[in-house]
Structure formats: C-alpha cells, structure tokens
Amino acid sequence: MYKKNLIVALSVIVLTSVCLSQGIRKAVWAGKFYEGRPEVLEKQIDSMLKMSESPGHTNRGLKALIVPHAGYPYSGQVAAYAYSLVKGADYDTAVIIGTSHRYGFQGCSIYLQGGYETPLGITKIDEELAKKLSKASGFGYIPQAHKEEHSIEVQIPFLQKSLPGVKIVPVIMGIPSKKTIFRLADAMAEILPGKKVLVIASTDMSHYLSKKEANTLDSETIGLIRTSDTATLINKIEKRENIMCGGGGVVSALLYSGESESPRVEILRYADSSAAGGPSDRVVGYLAAAVYSPPANTKFSLTADEKGELLDLARSAVNRFVRKNEAITYEPHSPVLLSRKGAFVTLKKNQLLRGCIGYIEPVAPLYKTVIQAAIYAASQDMRFKPVSDAELKGLDIEISVLSLPQKINDPDFITVGKHGLIISKGSKKGLLLPQVPIEQKWSRKTFLQHTCLKAGLPRDAWKFGADIFIFEAIVFH
Predict the structure, then answer these.
(1) Which fold has domain 304-476?
(2) Interior CA angle at 439 toward 409 and 436, to 5°?
(3) Could you give the 3-state DSSP secondary structure of residue 278?
(4) What is the pLDDT of residues 79-103, one digit of tens each?
(5) 276, CA 20 to 30 Å: which among 10, 178, 220, 373?
(6) Homologous superfamily of 23-292 in CATH?
(7) What whole-number distance in Å separates Cα of residue 220 and Cα of residue 243?
(8) Which residues belong to CATH 3.30.700.20 in the chain?
C-alpha cells in the first residue's frame, strides 16, 4: 500500500512540475546569442530594422515569414529584413515554428501556457490558440524541447520591437518527417483562417560548407522555396540533407500559406556568416523571405496522380467503414490535397445511383472531405440503405471537387455542363452537380426546376425570390 501511495505521490509531483514549467520561460541565450542589456538590445534592433526598411515590399496578403535564428552579430541583420516588413502591422498572434537542436523527439511540442521572457520583457502565450492548435494537431507539450532551445527565443526580441503586444504560440518541431510536417500544416489550415495570425518559420540554411559550396547549395534551396516545391523539400529534409536545420517548419508554413494553390514567395535577403567576419571555409547561410497568399486569379487543378490518389482514398474509406465500421487515417502524398475544398462523392452500382453526399463549403482539407463524404455516401444517404459488404465489388466512385459558390441574379449566366446549381430560400437548400443535367439531358430551365425540387421548394421558386448560386467542379472517376 505504501509503495502504491508513493507512486501516486511521485506522479503528482512530476505532473505538477511539468505544469509549472509551462509558466514564464526565462531567457537562456541573452548575453550569448544576443545582447543581454535591455537598453543596448533595443537600440541594436531599432538600428537593424531601420537599415532593412524596403518600401518595395508589402505585408498585404502576408501569411508567413522565414527568418534565421543564429546569433544577432551573424544573422540579425538578415532577420531584420523580415521583421521590418511587419513593423506596426495588425496581428494578434505569431505562431513561431522552431526546430529542436538539443533534444531529439518525434512530432512537435507546443508551449501552451505562460510566456517567453527576454531582456525587453515578457511576451505572453496566446493560450486559447495554442490549445486549439494542440487539439487540431495532436501535439502536446514536451518541456525538454523548449528548455534550452534558441530557435524561438531569438525571434522574441524582434517581435517585441516590431509587433509590440502581439501574443505568441511557440512550436518546436522535433525530428522532421512528412507526417509531422503535414500534421502541423493541416492543423494551422484548420484553425488559423479568419484570424490575425502571422506564422514565422525559424531556420538557418546550409551549415559549415565553404562559402562557394554554401552559396550554390543555398541558391538551389531558395529556388525550391520560391516555387514552393514542397515535395522535393520534404524528400531532402527526410534524407537529412544539409539544406536547412528548420526545413520542416518552412515546409509547414508553405503548405499552410498555399491554401488551395502554391503561395507567392518573395526573397527579402540572403547572406552567410562570412559577411559578419566568420571564416569563409566554414559558413552558415541565412535567409529572410515573405510568404503570401496565392494570387486571386490562380485556378485550382488536380493532376492525374492526385485524382487517382483521391479515388483510391475514397474507395479505401468506404471499404474500411462498411467492413469494420471504422474511419481510416491517412497522410496525403500530394500537398495539394491539403487544400480546403468542398467536394461530393457519388457511388453507383450497375450505373445506378447508390449514394451521394458531400460538402459545399471548404470546411476541411480536401483529403479529409473526401474521406468523410465517401463514408456518408455509403452509410448516411437517406434515399438508400447503407452499402453492404457484398456490394463493394464493382461499386463505382465519382468525385466532384467544387469551386466556391457564386451568387447570380440572372439565370442566363448558367451554362449547362459547366455549372452546378444551388438554390435556397429560407432554411431550404438544394444542390445538383454539373454532370447531372448532362446525364439527364436537361435544359437550363429544367435544371433550375429540378434544383428547386431538390431543395423542397416549388419547381418555379427560382423565379420568385429564391437565391441562385453557381459553381464549377472538377469531376473524375
């Protein structure tokens, strides 16, 4: 009994110490990586920010920054090019993605409570957002990851000067893997839209090569970042190639910023440690870059491989649910499938409809939407009995990935075969996909009438006050 009580007591002590460690994290690297005297540190940062002002760049549409994390004498001026871009901007929170240099672990560690202290004061944790990010990603708090890590700490004084009053969510990524990178990007894409949040990816470039070798390799990596070639970057990161120590966070930031297409990336500054007096035969590279939302006119598309991946995913989801009453877990091969898109999954057996359910609005990453829609089409379409195990063989699957609905006032804008329709009035709403009128050989008027009937409205409601929305779809099977 005594032994059992002792174990319980020790468990309480351990849990208490873990909770207490999520209070105010004291500065570890002040006086080492950056100036420890507050008045001197403040003047240094002010000077670096002033020297880095660039009227040619804007923070409009800015989603993320890529910044270095070495000692200020080496990388501070490069970092200033990123922070000068957001000086005085309207952000509530910065999600800072650092990388673990001293403690090896899988996944990420999110600092959930308290704040980070520097000689310039305490920057508070956005505890509500940190909790949501933790829940969405499945990543918790690992004390050892933050204890002596510098990749986040060195960002805080710059934030305190460029965005005074902003809160933070510190995230330390452990051993980088495709799964971890996607999980973090997926979680940010789920909870950050609509909020005034800046993502900061903290990384240095290549390490300890000659100046010529480093500049060549870094130029290649910068090209991959500029074009948002996340697949190649992940491949190099998982192979532990010497391109970026915080590459996992960079790719997560690119994936999050891209939403449904590739983001626009502007390179603000590149330098290496030799510029600050370090030896030229053993340099470290530093990059400052700005990552923006994709251009508004960028049209979403899927490759043949991406369509195949979604079809395989839908079939696996249906088979697993029908046979085992379980949902599948999945990590997409293509980052495009992280895009938030509405989608419908249609099931047919012997060319007859067997179920069709989906989501109009882009409420989740595309791959998750397809999984859920496939399961619901097989089990929740009230027009049909749930799909049985015996029906799985020969079940045909069709996926429709939707554009955002657009309200129209003139039905003449509708092109049969191109547009899907949504008609709503009050609490009633009906949707028909673009392929339906082609399959049924309907005219525009008949298409409108049947969409009204699908909504539970009179067939001519489209003439008398019902709202009409059109959308397009990428349809494949």
Answers:
(1) Glycoprotein, Type 4 Pilin (3.30.700)
(2) 40
(3) coil
(4) 999 999 999 999 999 999 999 999 9
(5) 220
(6) LigB-like (3.40.830.10)
(7) 9
(8) 304-476
